[in-house]
Each structure stands twice: as C-alpha cells, then as structure tokens.
Amino acid sequence: MDIILVTTVVASLFLVIGVAEPFAARLRLPYSVILAVFGTLIGAGATFLLRTELTDALNPVAEAIVELPIRSNVFLYVFLPTLLFQATLGMNLRRMLDDWVPILVLAVVAVVVATLSVGYALAWVSPLPLVACLLIGAIVSTTDPSAVVSIFRSISAPRRLARIIEGESLLNDAAAIALFGLFMGFVMLGIPDPELSEALVRFPVLIAGGALTGWVAARIAVWMMTLVSRHELAQVSISVALPYLAYIVAERGVGASGVIAVVSAGLTLNLTAPSRLPPQSWAKLREIWEVLAHWAGALIFILAALLIPKLLSETRLADFLLVGVVILAAVVARAVIVFGLMPVLTLLRLSPSVERPFRVAILWGGLRGAVTLALALAVTESVRVPDDIQRLVGILATGFTLFTLLVQGTTLRWVIKRLGLDRLSPIDLALSRQVVAVALQTVREDVKRTTENYELNHEIVRSEAKRFGERLDSVVSEAEDAKILDRDRIALGLIALAGHERETILERVRERTISARMAERVISDADRLIEGARSQGRNGYQRAARRSVAYNRAFRAAVQLHSRFGQSRPLARLTADRFELLLSKRLILRDMGAFIDGRIRRIHGRRVAELLHELLSRRVEAIETALQGLRLQYPGYAEELERRFIRRTALRMEEREYVAMREDGLIGAEVHTALMQELATRRAAMEERAHLDVAVQRTAFLRQFSLFADLDDGALRRLGRSLKTRYVDAGETILRKDSTARSVFLIASGAVELESAGQSWRLGRGEMFGQMAILMERARRANVRAIAPTTLLILDEERFRRLLKRSAALRSAVRASAEKRGIDPSELIPDKERVA
Fold it and tell me: pLDDT for 752-773, tens place per residue?
C-alpha cells in the first residue's frame, strides 16, 4: 500500500479525533461513543464506496481505509500498554487503598463471575464448545472507564465513585486479558472442554509471573532514571520504554501475562519514582504520558470502530438471540456482584460501604470498548481458530460492545441525574450561596477601587454599581434564607480547611520546601481529612487527623524485624520518613490559622472559626508531641533534619532572587543559566537524607537517662542491644491488671497513665513502670495505657535484675518510685541476695 496514502488516512483520523471531542461536549455524549460512531460510519462508508458503481473516484481512499494494516497485535502491543501504564501513573494509589476491597471485587471476582456466567449461558443455547463460550465471556468482561469517568468529571459526581471505577477498569483489563490468553490457548489446541481446575491453577501463575516481571523492570527503570536525574527528557524516554519491554519480556520470555506486567510496572513506578525524581521531572513525565494515552485511547477506539462493519458483515438472524444472551448474562453477573456480594462484605465488615446510588451507577457504567474489540479481532485473525468460532466471537463481542456504548453510554448521564449524583447536597448548595455572597462583597469593593483609579464615566459606573448591587442583594437574601445547622457548618469549615491544607502542600512541593519523598504521603493525608469531614463531620476529620500521625502497620512490622532478627534498616528508613513527615506537617499547619481568620470566619462565623482553631491546635499539639518524642529518642538525627530543612528553604529563597534579577534585567540569560545549574547541583546533593543508625542513636539516648548514670560505655552499648522497642498510639493499652510480670518498661518518649484501686498517676519520659510486680513477685496491679504517641524500651526480667544489682542509680530510682506509690522499699529489695 502507498505509504503516502496511509499517512494521509492516519493524519485525517487525527483530524477526526480533534473534531470528536468538542462535538461530544456539544451533544453531551461520552467522547468514546462519538469516536465509535465516527469510526463505524467511516468504515461503513469506505465499504459502500468500494461496492457501489456510482463512482470510482474515491476508491483509492476507500481501499486505504479498508486495507489499513490494523491487526490485533497493533492494539495489544502498541496501544494497550500505553493506556494501562498511563492509568497507573495517574492514580492516587494511597487513596485507592481505602477502597481496595470493592475495587478488587469488581476487578477480579466480577471478571471471573462474568466469564463463567456468559460462558455457560452461551454453551446452553449455542452450538459452540464450552471453551469458546468461556473465551467470549473473558473478552466481554473488560470494561472501559473513559466514557464513565469523563461524565463524572463533567458534573458534580462524587470523586470516590470515579476512583472505584478507574481502579476496577485498570485491574479488570489485566484479569480479563489473562483469562483470555488462557482460554485462547485451549481453543487453539482444540481442547473443547478444559478442566476448570487446570485453568484455575494456571491463572495465578500468569498473574504472579507478570507482577514479578513488571516489578523488576520498574525497579531497574527507576535506578536508571536516578542516574540521569538532571535530564528530564532522558527520564521520559526510559519511562516510554518501560511498559513495552515489560510486556514483551513477560509474554515472550517468561510466559506470563504482559498486561499484568505493565500494570505492575506502572504501580511500582508510581509508588517509588516520586521519592527518587525531582518534582518537576515527575510532573513533566506524567503530563507527557497523558498526551500519549489520549492519542492511544482515541486511535484504538476509532481504528477498532473501523472494523465493526467487517466484523458484523456475516450477521444472521439467530445471532441477535445470542447477543441478547450475552447482554443478559453479563448484566446479571455484574448485578449479582454489585447488589449481592458487595453488601454482604460490608455487613461482614470486610469492605467499606458503597452507597446504593453508587452501586447502580457502577452497574450501568460497565461499558465495553476498544479492548473488547481488539481481543475479538485477535480471535478472528488466528488461523488456528475454527471459522465458525471466529465468526461468532466477532459478532457477539461487537454486538455487546455496541449495546453498551449506544444504549448504556448514551443513557448513563440520565441515570446519574435520576440517582441525584449530579446535584450538590443541600449543605453544599447552601454553602455555595454563602460563598457567592462573600465573594461578591469582596468583588464590589475591588471594582469600586478600580473604577476610581481609572476615572471612568460616573453615569456608567453608577448604573453598573446599581445592577451589581441588585445581584448582591439577591444573593445575600438567598444565603440568609439557607439555614445551615451548626454541625453542618463545622463540617463545611473543616472541608474548606483541609482543602486549603492540600493546596498549601502542593505549593510547598512546587517550592521544594517539602521533598518529593513526602509529597504523596502528605497529600494523601489531606485527602483523607477532606473525605473524613465530608462523610462524618468533625469525628471523621479527627479520626483522619489521628491516623495521619499514628504508627502504621509497616512501622510495627519494621520494629518486629529489628527486635527479633536485628534487621534495623527498615526501621531506620521508616523512622526517618516519620521525622520528615512530622516536620512537613508542622510546617503546613502553621499557615492554617490565618486562613481560618481570613476566609472561614467570613463565611461561617466566629463560633465555627473558634472551634476550627481548637481542632487545629489539637493537631499541632499531637504533631509536636510525636516530634518531640522522636527528637528525644534520636537527638542527633533530628538536628540534621532541621538543618536540612533550613538549607532547602535558603536555596528556595536564593532561586527566587535569581529569577527576580533575571526578570528585572539585572543579569543576562547566560549568567542566570549558570547560577541555576549551580543551584541544581547543590539541591541534588541536599536531597540525600542523612543515615539514621538506630543502634548508635539508642546508646546516645541511654546516656541521657539518670537511671544509667553509673554505667560505662561498654555496658550502655550492651544494654542498648538488649532493649526491645515498642511504639504505641494514644489510647492504646500497654499492660492489663492481673497479667504476669515478665518485663520492665522505660519511657523513651510520650506519656502513660497507670490506674489501680481507683487511683491514677502519670509517667513521662525517663521514667519506668512494671518493675514493682517483678520485684514483689506478684501479678500486675495496674492497667497502663498510653495518653500520647509513646515509644517504650522493654527490658526482660533477668537482665533487669542483673542491672539492678550493679547500678546504684537504678536501685535509688526503684526505691523512690516505691515510696511515691506508698510501698515500703524493704519489701522490694530486702538484701543483696534478693536483688541478685
């Protein structure tokens, strides 16, 4: 085929893509639906021109369209990796983890159920062998989120709903294509009824092999990117190579799922690259991938649509019945998952609740698209697949795809409106009126000053002022009529406060005051604050705030590794991350008070502003307590981090001065470039965080305890190695009354409260508890709980007794503690033999 003609056709398709988006917006239809319609019309028109005798002038163009080298491998090896990889880069994975159960249910369980449902339904009503029916079931199980998400983003639909559907589609494609490869192999081998157990055994192998391949490839790619950290285009080039190489290696080299490899590579890059690459490099990389994915998604849709007339060319009347069976089986299978399994998991407290309107939107939003057509095309191209199977696969997959696009896609916006998902809640509506009233008051003042400065015509100014005043009076009246309960005002104020916190974080990241390593974490915490306040008001906000400073499971696992196996590197890394996280949060929260006074007070009033100040003060206090505990435990490291923060702030200010001088013409482009390169070198060197040596820091920390003042350095080092660390959150119970005494606890940071016989007393840093029960050889007589995030050092009974024998300072502290609690010291240590 003439390369010039092919190039002309492809360039023309890009024109169609450019026209389709504004056309879809004008018709208020999903973009993918318009692309499918345009592609089908172009394909049908080209076929008609070749068959008609009306004219032969356009035959070369029609032939070029019909004979475009469109093969399934183009979709699977060129376009599909691009779409999947960009989807993983654009996701907020930490926010999706909050809904990982419903996402996995929709993406994996629903795929298997739909495959089996469609497969067995077709096997019952058609002459196809079971394996071919299951193959069709796998093909039609892939969902396309682009149409659904585009509708959600164009209206005020909940963002959580969009996240669930995006997450489902990403993993859904991977699972469905893995099943497709499995059943396609059986069809090509001529196995009509495969053992289901054999398929289920091979399926996890495909998944695991692909996941491991993608993870390894992404780790290598990140390592290569860090070597060229100053060259953004080089990093983008490496990222472009990553999904294709991962796909090919998994498919051809490992014999695993290439789609899973691409998803795994994208997820790994999303989680690791932000902390290893400069923020501007990561932002540019994602922007370029968004453009690539837009083109790939549009081309795969329109090229697949060009094939629809060809795939439907041999349709028979009986095939419409089979298409109806596929539609019914697929919808029923999805409904069983959405309205059957998901509520059960919520009742069992295995999954967060998904509201009923959300579930209806998820059911009707299960659109199919270009991936389904591409998989069907792969079947019709294979010479090892019988002709009758090829024909039915093409017709059923295409018919089902057209149904979801032309019926579900065109009615989805109407369904969302009927569910009320496009409307603001009464609280948000009332808030919007108040916000408009406050904004217009500010605008009126600014416009008045502007008109005075420019000395405009007084009559025109007076006329416009009157018109503006009428609008303002109307808005103020509506705002006053909108009654908002104090509880709702507090929730709205907290949502606004958390939203401003998120914007401040993004600004600090752009300024590089907050490192790229911490950016994703602090932004995710801010998102949780917003959703907590939106769903549960003050309680949800406070719960999210406590969670943001709590010790997570990864931290506790690192503690266990250090305590039991002596592996300190994970603990050192997570402790350093916690240091930096708390410092970043403290920096951000310092700016929130001015926002409350300057903006929230004007909208919600003095009482709400005062309450928000109180909640903010509690957050600051919790962060300061946690930070102080780490400072006390690792004093040298805390100093290094604070020095690093000051230096980074100085670099940011220095950069700002150079930019200002360049804009004012004080320095030329050459000098500015040289100064910025030097600045980048110093900044790159500063990104390396100081190493935290847990063992060395613990020895230095123990020297500060008066309890061990008479121990030499060797004894302190041995003691430091023998101590185990335990981290507890505020409110967590440490010891229970009547439990067996086997350990003594030293408070490294934080505070605890002891309760016994109706009395309570508190202990802080440098004090110990648990020793009385050991020395009196009794069960514990008090309940002990943490009243702040607390770090404890645990000493076993045997070592404590040995240490007590040789340390006069420790014996003195034990006696003083006994006297404080009204216990005769002689009952604890009657003589040296008892101590021994």
Answer: 888 877 777 777 777 778 777 7
Q: CB atoms < 10 A from the CB of 403, how many?
A: 19
Contact 360, 157 (CB under 8 A): no
Please check whether residue 34 is in contact with residue 27, taking contact to mean a CB–CB distance below 8 angstroms: yes
Say which residue, 350 or 836, is predicted with more confidence.
350
Q: Of 621, 624, 619, 635, give the one whose Cα is nearest residue 583.
A: 624
User: Domain ranges in the chain?
Assistant: 72-419, 426-484, 487-634, 696-835
What whole-number distance in Å separates Cα of residue 693 and Cα of residue 637?
9
Contacts of 94 (CB under 8 A, 6+ apart): 520, 521, 524
- Average pLDDT (212-228) is 90
What is the Cα Rg of the chain in Å?
33
Q: Give the class (CATH, top level) of 72-419.
A: mainly alpha
Confidence check: pLDDT of 105 > 80:
yes
Give the mean model confidence (pLDDT) for residues 464-488: 70
The pLDDT score that the predictor gives to residue 79 is 81
- Residue 836 confidence (pLDDT) above 60: no
Element spanning 202, H or E: helix 196-227
For strands 752-756 and 768-769, give the pairing. unpaired
Collapse the DSSP code of 156 into the 3-class scheme (helix H, G, I; strand E, B; otherwise coil) and give the result: coil
Of 640, 510, 525, nearest in space to 575 by CA:
640
CA distance 568 to 590: 33
- What count of Cα atoms within 13 Å lies in the side-chain half-sphere of residue 484? 26
d(CA 209, CA 260) in angstroms, rounded, equals 8
What are the CA-CA distances from residue 244 to residues 176, 274, 773 (Å)? Answer: 19, 21, 64
Query: Rounded to whole angstroms, how far apart are CA atoms 150 and 746?
Result: 56
Would you say the CATH fold of 696-835 matches that of 72-419?
no
d(CA 121, CA 259): 27
CATH architecture of 696-835: Sandwich (2.60)
Task: Give the tens place of pLDDT for each residue, 35-66.
Answer: 878 888 888 888 787 777 766 666 777 777 77
Sheet with strand 768-769: strands edge to edge:
724-728, 790-796, 743-749, 768-769
pTM of the model: 0.63
